[in-house]
Design brief:
Layout: H1 2-16, H2 33-42, H3 45-52, E1 70-72, H4 78-92, E2 94-98, H5 103-112, H6 114-118, E3 129-130, H7 138-144, H8 147-157, E4 162-163, E5 169-172, E6 201-207, E7 217-221, H9 238-243, E8 248-251, E9 258-262, E10 267-270, E11 277-285, H10 294-300, H11 312-317, E12 330-333, E13 336-339
């Protein structure tokens, strides 16, 4: 049986990877349906997870003339912002809410977390600079659980999201501009190759600097989130993207803009020399791959923030990072925690 499987793999690899100009090294991903059928049969976990959490969509190609991922919110009601943003997320895999947060909101946040901003390095480098995990406060929760942003995500994933990880501030000032040719080894340590995040992730990033089109920015392949993508093999080559005329969209916006993208959309970071991008990133999930870390819990609660002060919706969102106290407590089942079924046993 092993020999038969090996033979099938060799045949399929020969048929699928004949064009070495687009398939080389670990750049072996593709949106080709024959390819996707094969890898989903070999490794069906991602597809099954997407189906389980209602994150599976029907494939659609986005034309280069139809790639408007940005939304001007100035004259829109809250309901219109939610509807239009969720529609763009579903179509493109990403949306930019231009100047969503006001200068006063950003300045108030920066003032409270000035020590965390001061931890960042703004010197040219080949990697990101991160603050420590942020302690909870009203200013932080106002951003993290913003009603409209949560409603956009909720409408897109068809359920209330869970916070997946503990927030920190990030900044980057690249020392180099990333090379477009994957055959040449990149000088940077940025995620500058076309990749996927985990299958039910959805991420919101708030810009604390202006991000112009000519600056370092995120790029997405519009509509690629609708395909039954696999995360292993990992990368799409730039040559594949160009040869198949896939729609690449640059994500940029003024300070206060919010960038939301789906974990199933192929995306990359385009580093541009000596341009600074600073943002805070919030990761949400449909319900799996959640990061529970006792050390980060301590850091976030070190200023005595009372979790019971959160409204019920926000408390539910963050319940996987800060487990809710149960009267009956928890029990361990195969190294996993679950609520106890019976009290007093």
């Amino acid at each position: 049986m092993y020999k038969i499987k090996n033979l099938i793999k060799k045949i399929v690899f020969f048929l699928l990877y004949r064009d070495k100009k687009i398939y080389y090294g670990d750049n072996l991903n593709s949106l080709n349906f024959l390819y996707l059928i094969f890898w989903n049969c070999i490794k069906p976990g991602r597809m099954l997870t997407r189906i389980k959490y209602n994150r599976f969509l029907l494939p659609r190609r986005i034309k280069n003339i139809d790639n408007n991922v940005s939304l001007d919110i100035k004259n829109l009601s809250n309901k219109e912002i939610i509807e239009a943003s969720a529609a763009k997320l579903k179509k493109y895999g990403t949306v930019i809410l231009n100047q969503y947060f006001s200068e006063s909101v950003l300045s108030r946040f920066e003032d409270e977390y000035k020590s965390n901003f001061s931890e960042l390095s703004y010197q040219p480098s080949d990697s990101y600079s991160n603050s420590d995990t942020l302690p909870l406060s009203k200013n932080l929760t106002d951003l993290w659980f913003d009603e409209i942003i949560i409603s956009i995500i909720e409408k897109y994933i068809k359920r209330l999201p869970f916070a997946r990880s503990y927030p920190m501030i990030q900044s980057t000032t690249p020392k180099y501009t990333d090379l477009e040719n994957d055959h040449v080894k990149s000088k940077t340590k940025f995620p500058d190759r076309w990749h996927l995040d985990h299958s039910t992730l959805i991420q919101a990033a708030i810009y604390f600097t202006d991000v112009e089109e000519r600056d370092s920015h995120t790029q997405v392949l519009c509509g690629s989130h609708t395909y039954p993508n696999v995360a292993d093999p990992i990368f799409l080559s730039n040559e594949y993207v160009k040869k198949n005329n896939l729609t690449v969209k640059k994500c940029f916006g003024k300070r206060g803009s919010v960038q939301i993208h789906c974990g199933n959309v192929f995306h990359r970071f385009q580093a541009i020399q000596n341009t600074t991008r600073t943002w805070i990133k919030f990761e949400y999930s449909s319900g799996n791959n959640l990061v529970l870390d006792s050390q980060n819990i301590g850091k976030m609660l070190k200023n005595g923030f009372n979790l019971s002060s959160l409204d019920s919706k926000s408390r539910s969102i963050v319940s996987c990072l800060f487990p809710i106290k149960l009267y009956k407590g928890y029990e361990i089942n195969k190294n996993n925690f679950k609520p106890s079924k019976f009290r007093g046993i």
